[in-house]
Specification:
By secondary structure, the protein is an alpha/beta fold. The chain is about 25% helix and about 25% strand. The strands form 3 sheets. Strands 3, 4, 5, 6, 7, 14 and 15 form a 7-stranded mixed beta sheet that branches. A 6-stranded parallel beta sheet has the order 10-9-8-11-12-13, with helices on one face. Helix 2 packs across helix 3. The chain is globular.
Amino acid sequence: MKVLRFHETGGPEVLRYEDAERPEPGAGEVRIRVAGSAFNPADTGIRSGTLPFPVALPHTPGYDVAGTIDAIGDGVTAFQPGDAVVGFLSMTADGSAAEYVVTPADVLTAAPKSIPLADAAALPSIALTAWQALFDEGGLTEGQRVLIVGAGGSVGGYAIQLAKRAGAYVIATASDRSRASVTDAGADEVIDHAGTVLTDAVSEPVDLLLNLAPIEPSEFEALVPLVRDGGAVVSTTAWMTTPGDEARNVSAHTVFVRSDVSQLAKLVELVDSGELRVEVARRIPLSQLAEVHAQAATGTLRGKVIAIPDAAV
């Protein structure tokens, strides 16, 4: 089979598009014929060695997958060959940037039926991050106000949609480039983060502050007074401390996304019911995925990219 992988950590140039043996599923595992592999920013950190994930070399990136099961291991009863599935794979095991990938069956759920199967790879880890940030960590409920900083990315798009579905009032910060997509996702207010002092622009306290942007720690701390007493601050920027305010009972939470099949199945239901939209900016052949890594390294990557095995393009 064809695979994109690296034999040593480093820049995008360490990625090789090459032949590899097709993996066989063990007990409790299935083999997926990959329809789509989503690129995520963390893939660059794992490849470069700057994210502390203990991967064995050579390593195949891509921890979001959509595809069709083509073989099952002993003890697997939930799926059969031919089933279309989607899943958030282990970030330390070989991933989906290949024609086939093997994974434990218990991280998978049935794929959405209302969108192309390859596009479903844009759902798992990113939508789970948004869900867990809003509800598991932030405790967001109907009628509350949420401020989403850096809402123009993929997590922000899902977070806005999910918060609106929950009945929240959503204030989102975004660049001019992202304003249209943030508005389309359902934000009630959109604030230009470049030309506005956020602490002046938010006129009423919010119940939840969700930060998705790589802002300076001092800038982050300055936003905490916008949160009401007893509210919450949640962040996906795990490399810096999430600030809170103990005196006002404002809690602080950092999101480390985890695989949760029940949550993922619910997200799939929302996609198929039309309540959650999956946005894909580009679909590329797997052989061109190294170019996406290079674009991410230079900061020129825009939107969600799905790699499709060349034979299926």
